[in-house]
Design a protein that fits this description.
Elements lengths: L10 H7 L18 E2 L31 E3 L2 E8 L6 E3 L5 E5 L14 E6 L8 E6 L8 E4 L2 E5 L3 E6 L13 E5 L12 E3 L5 E5 L15 E7 L2 E9 L1 E7 L6 E6 L10 E6 L5 E2 L5 E3 L2 E2 L18 E4 L4 E6 L12 E5 L13 E5 L12 E5 L11 E6 L5 E5 L4 E7 L6
Parallel strand pairs: 1-2, 15-19
Antiparallel strand pairs: 2-26, 3-29, 4-5, 5-6, 6-7, 8-9, 9-10, 10-11, 12-13, 13-14, 14-15, 16-17, 17-18, 18-22, 20-21, 23-24, 24-25, 25-26, 27-28, 28-29
């Protein structure tokens, strides 16, 4: 549990206690004079990778961030200015690929450069150099770098383009279409995307639907597996699976599913869904989760008993976006934990209540166990140092990158004693 050092931080205690797997509640941000806080006892032993032995990252000239609240024992720095950063992926050499859509996205962001950008740090000073890898992409949303390609999504198409170590600009004439998203007048243009360790591509399509449409089930959100033998739908019955992350070494992929915005009075949920090999049905628009129908599923129009349950659920409008696993470098309890960017509520007053980065311990398969706990707080509208986290990404060297699409920035977080590798 959260242990608060000063009275000024007392509001954090109830917030941390509320972050549980089955039901997260929105929490207020800590005061500006609380840059760090205790969360749980930290095991000083490093992960299996051992302690890094280079110069301390704490000596980096990267700008500090005043007023943000990160778990004690960690510090936060500003890495880059990017208008509306939405999705990130790590290249083998440590470069961070990030999308900057120009088109308005769910949640009200947009107005970016319409490009896939590369954030490099060749001089290892903790401050990014920004390069335009591919542009002219107003509707770009997700990006994934894997197995010699950069993959990215637009409204109708999943593309890939060859990638070699250290590339900062797409090779002319080499881009190819990998997958075309099925037509649907209710479809969203913002897709999720990642690539498994075996090279299988996972990508999603969401819809604008509502649970009031339960009956003869309309087209709904889906996830597709794309590989050398073609494509297939592996998950249906979703509303808006906006982000997908695949484990770097294990076959597990998880999608973040956003619930029905109109359903807070009857218990609609948001969830993390593990993507399995067999075809799954998550039950939207008739089911809240396994064995729980919506009020519009009267008379059991659709059987909810067999739908896929999430590996974690969140209170509606906490809005889980990007997620990633700690790679085994940080000390416990964070070691190999699953971190999730909660984009917060668009409908709350003040805006974005619940926006934060949270984490949970995982089992051997990488699925979350126990409680989600707050890790990075201090998000909010109008002058706060942080605003709305959209994605999280761990680097090979142990830093956690956080994209804040409303603030137009990418940050990194590291343990106080983390050294350059």
């Amino acid at each position: 549990m959260l242990r608060v050092r000063t009275a000024a931080r007392s509001g954090l205690a109830s917030c941390a206690a509320a972050f549980v797997v089955s039901s997260l509640v929105a929490c207020t941000s800590p005061p500006p004079n609380a840059p760090s806080y205790d969360i749980v006892p930290v095991d000083a032993a490093w992960g299996e990778a051992g302690p890094p032995m280079g110069a301390p990252w704490s000596e980096s000239p990267a700008p500090t961030v005043q007023g943000a609240a990160v778990a004690r024992g960690f510090f936060l720095r500003r890495y880059a200015t990017v208008v509306s950063p939405r999705s990130m992926s790590l290249a083998p050499n440590g470069d961070v690929f990030v999308t900057s859509p120009a088109r308005s996205t769910p949640g009200g962001e947009g107005g970016g450069s319409g490009a896939v950008l590369v954030l490099s740090d060749d001089d290892r000073d903790g401050v990014a150099e920004t390069h335009t890898f591919a542009d002219g992409l107003a509707d770009v949303h997700a990006v994934a770098v894997r197995n010699g390609y950069v993959y990215f999504t637009t409204e109708n198409t999943l593309f890939r383009t060859p990638y070699a170590m250290g590339m900062r600009r797409e090779a002319t004439g080499m881009r190819e279409r990998v997958f075309s998203y099925p037509d649907n007048v209710d479809a969203r243009w913002t897709h999720g995307l990642d690539v498994r360790a075996d090279g299988t591509v996972m990508t999603s399509r969401g819809v604008w639907g509502t649970s009031r449409e339960c009956g003869p089930r309309p087209e709904n959100g889906e996830i597709y597996r794309v590989g050398g033998m073609g494509s297939s739908r592996i998950v249906q019955g979703l509303r808006n699976p906006l982000y997908i992350r695949c484990h770097r070494t294990d076959p597990l992929c998880i999608a973040a599913e956003l619930g029905d915005d109109r359903g807070p009075t009857w218990g609609a949920l948001e969830k993390l869904v593990a993507l399995e090999e067999s075809t799954q049905d998550v039950g939207f628009p008739c089911c809240i989760t396994q064995s729980r129908g919506t009020p519009y599923n009267g008379g059991n129009v659709f059987d909810c008993s067999a739908v896929t349950a999430g590996v974690a659920t969140f209170t509606l409008q906490l809005t889980p976006f990007g997620l990633d696993w700690e790679p085994g470098i940080w000390p416990g309890p964070f070691n190999r934990g699953l971190f999730v960017a909660l984009h917060g509520s668009y409908y709350s007053s003040p805006k974005w209540e619940g926006a934060s980065v949270v984490f949970a311990a995982t089992d051997a398969a990488g699925k979350p166990t126990g409680s989600f706990m707050p890790f990075l707080l201090g998000f909010g509208p109008g002058g706060t140092p942080l605003e709305r986290p959209a994605d999280v990404l761990f680097s090979h060297d142990g830093r956690l990158f956080v994209a804040d699409d409303h603030a137009g920035a990418v940050y990194w977080i590291a343990p106080d004693d983390l050294r350059r590798r």
